[in-house]
Amino acid sequence: MHPILGRIAICFVLFLIIFPALTCQIYIIWPWYGRELSVELITLLLPFNVLVVSLLWNYYLCIVTDPGEVPDGWKPDTQSGEGYEVKRLTGCPRFCRTCDKFKPPRSHHCRQCNRCVLRMDHHCPWTNNCIGHFNYGHFIRFLFYVDVTCSYHLAMVSYRVMAASRARYYDEPTGAELIFIILNYVFVVPVILVVGAFSIYHFHSLLGNTTTIEGWEKDKAAMLRRHGKIEEVNISYNLGVRRNIASILGNNPFLWCCPTVPPGTGLSTSFQLPMVRHHNWPPRDPTLANQTPFKLPDSPWTYENGNVNPNLRPTNGQLRGVNGNHYKSTQDPISVLPPYHPDYTDPGVDAHPGRPYSPDSVSDHSEEGYSEVVRVRRGSEGYEVRPVTREQLFQEYVQDQINEAGRYQVYEPEHTLESDEDLEEDIDELSGEAGDASTISDDEVPLALQ
Residue 203 contacts by C-beta under 8 Å, 6 or more apart in sequence? Predict the structure, then answer.
């Protein structure tokens, strides 16, 4: 996420917290108590303000607290009994090639923060920070205080609404008070529904000592188990409810609601139960075990067997020039025939109309002459370039020069007779008369026969 977008998200969350907290006290509760300070009013608003301050403080800690980063030069202790995670293919300890560091157990690389985070749970856009080992406790407290504060807020506003429904005319809420009552419901009700559902998920993960990423991996393993592809794999960091909460919020239950530093460094799994067997986690679909690795062919735009893809078609059926534009003659078309001639064509029509593409054709036109002309065939899998031989290039050039309008004028003689058939009939008649007559003068013989 862009830093500016992260700051905008933080400002939006602060507005959702501060606006209902202030308006419900100034425009709803304070006028209801007659704008006079009393013990009953302090008893009502003091716990609410304590909850709001605790909510803001834990939200601030979620933002500024570093979730934990792998120290430079850290290496897993393979001789200790704490256990360590290895790569599925090589069997060596997990290593991040992006950070160039070994990865401790339960750590993952965050693309948003561009680093490996210890016990990474997820990247939260509302805090513009990763939720990891050192700020996950603050995040849990933040969710807890959001739920409690919103519930307290709705209870106060609803109590005021119920009191106004049975109040007398002199105790009815004003127009401004009604507006702020509606706005508080609009702001708080969606927040408690959305954040409440999110809190239930994270409270359940806290009780089971599971992160969000590990929850996704467990769901994948459960799906493979239901389909009968793998056996049940029991890999869990669950140590019991009491110890699971203590690993995040501290050992003292009285300080679980107070901001504290979580125990441990996040580099080891001291709370992990010993494992008897070694398992691949997350489990892989066994049907993909015998799958041959994909290998690109020699030509990137052909099938694996080397044949050209028959479905590869150009995005445009017309011929293209070298620079991608359609071919167009550089000279204006000129017609040598008069407009009343039957073979006359409109000069506005392009002298070189686009021809449909054929996979066997390898010639093309160019706006920059006929040098280095290639056939470009485009499609969803890329493009193939077929070179043009010099002979084909010459033939294309000669044919184009011949077909160019106005370059050559073909002489067509006009016939004196009405048709060739009439001429043949006249010749036959004259031949018959020549057989009957002994002598024929030169004036009687047509000029064509002379």
Answer: 140, 143
**pLDDT value for 222:** 75
pLDDT computed for residue 370 by the predictor: 42
In this prediction, residue 335 carries a pLDDT of: 62
176-214 burial: b if 16+ Cβ within 10 Å, else e:
ebeebbeebbebbeebbeebeeebeebeebbebbbbeeb
Q: Which residue has the tokens 């004196």?
A: 416
3-state secondary structure the chain: CCHHHHHHHHHHHHHHHHHHHHHHHHHHHHHHCCCCCCHHHHHHHHHHHHHHHHHHHHHHHHHHCCCCECCCCCCCCCCCCCCCCECCCCCCECEECCCCEECCCCCEEECCCCEEECCCCEEECCCCEEECCCCHHHHHHHHHHHHHHHHHHHHHHHHHHHHHHCCCHHHCCCHHHHHHHHHHHHHHHHHHHHHHHHHHHHHHHHHHCCCHHHHHHHHHHHHHHHCCCCCCCCCCCCCCHHHHHHHHHCCCHHHCCCCCCCCCCCCCCCCCCCCCCCCCCCCCCHHHCCCCCCCCCCCCCECCCCCECCCCCCCCCCCECCCCCECCCCCCCCCCCCCCCCCCCCCCCCCCCCCCCCCCCCCCCCCCCCCCCEEEEEECCEEEEEECCHHHHHHHHHHHHHHCCCCCCCCCCCCCCCCHHHHHHHHHHHHHHHHHCCCCCCCCCCCCCC
Report the chain (450 residues): mean pLDDT per 10 consecutive residues: 87 95 93 89 95 96 93 80 65 83 88 90 93 94 96 94 76 85 95 95 92 84 71 71 90 91 79 47 62 60 53 51 49 60 62 46 43 47 58 81 71 56 60 52 53
Give the residue numbers annotated as catalytic, written as ranges.
Answer: 124
pLDDT score for 437: 47
What does the pLDDT read at residue 373? Answer: 46
| Residue with token string 């992990």 | 272
pLDDT for the residue numbered 3: 81
C-alpha 261 chain-centroid distance: 38
Count of residues for the chain?
Answer: 450
For residue 33, which of 22, 45, 51, 50 has the smallest C-alpha distance?
45
**The predicted structure's pLDDT at residue 363:** 43
